[in-house]
Write a structure and sequence with these properties.
Shape: globular
Structural class: mainly beta
Helix content: under 10%
Strand content: over 45%
Distance between the termini: 13 Å
Length: about 80
């Protein structure tokens, strides 16, 4: 899977990390309207925690791996 490291602004709600803003390396910022779900891979398909989020009405995957955030390349996303 091709992925790009990004920054993500988060909050903590009920002990869970909730991503709120995705920031690309060039500084572009995108509000995350909704977290659809989050989970760890049950079969080692990916590392860390995968979040399915809604950004500008499109579903994207972002990943939290060892305190670093990544976004899946648009060529490989749903």
């Amino acid at each position: 899977m091709k992925k790009t490291e990004v920054k993500v602004e988060t909050i903590v709600e009920d002990g869970e990390i909730v991503p709120k803003v995705l920031i690309w390396p060039d500084g572009r910022r995108f509000n995350i309207q909704r977290v659809i779900y989050s989970s760890a891979s049950p079969v080692n398909e990916y590392e860390g925690i995968r979040y399915s989020v809604s950004i500008n009405g499109q579903e994207r995957y972002i990943y939290l791996v060892n305190d670093r955030w990544y976004v899946q390349s648009s060529k490989e996303s749903k």
